[in-house]
Design goal:
globular, 71 residues, 10% strand, mainly alpha
């Protein structure tokens, strides 16, 4: 993807009215939108990029997330 396309995609992602989270195969955050950062109470998107998503969840929610991925 060229830089113009990537910038356009990020603009669209950030204007979505719902939270969006994109994980890599290791369940690390590679992209989020502003709504998701608000829900997690993060001051910046950069604070969340690269984090292991299940670590952001409560223990019981983390288990549910892991089980959902296995099914």
């Amino acid at each position: 993807i060229n830089s113009d396309s990537q910038a356009f995609n990020l603009l669209i992602i950030n204007k979505l009215p719902f939270a969006l989270l994109i994980l890599d195969e290791d369940k690390k955050i590679i992209e989020i939108n502003e709504k998701f950062a608000q829900i997690i109470n993060s001051s910046t998107k950069e604070e969340l990029l690269g984090k292991y998503f299940p670590d952001l969840l409560a223990n019981d929610e983390s288990e549910k997330f892991e089980n959902t991925l296995l099914n």
